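Hey, I'm writing a tutorial for new members on how sequence and structure tokens pair up, and I'd like a real worked example in the thread rather than a made-up one. If someone can provide the structure for the chain below, I'll link this post from the tutorial.
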Amino acid sequence: MRRIDPFRRYALIAIAPATPADLPAVQALARRIWHAHYPGIISVEQIEYMLARGYATAELIRFVGTRGAGLALARDAEPVGFAAWYRSPEPATTKLDKLYVAIEHHGTGVGRRLLDHVEDAARSDGSGTLILNVAKRNEAAIAFYRRCGFSRRNEVVIDIGGGFVMDDYVMAKPL
């Protein structure tokens, strides 16, 4: 894939709240990104299982219409990334549930802009902390989150059904 010139494309990327009409684009982008990024980190079977669960329309719609939650889409001519978040049961805490950028846009600042958008929304909602889960073997994402001010809080192994587990770090950032 051709790399995007970060200086030329960065300014053209718009980040805005997603609407229900955007959900098919989010689903298609998630499928493309997951199949490009996750093989070698988790199995293809687990990728398919997690896409079916985490990107079903009913799952995504809760980010669009729920107070304290959101789904933001980054696009230039077409969608290139997205982020989803919700208010955690932990007091004054927001959970970043999804942050994905098309591989050809890595290193262009799109991920950082999406994260900034989520941080602003979390602060506006009264959160003082942003948390996330990241697969322990997802070294590129862990490095990105560290550069953005996150630190490892703890480790979790979560049974997600279907014979699969998520073996994750929980990372946190004060806002």
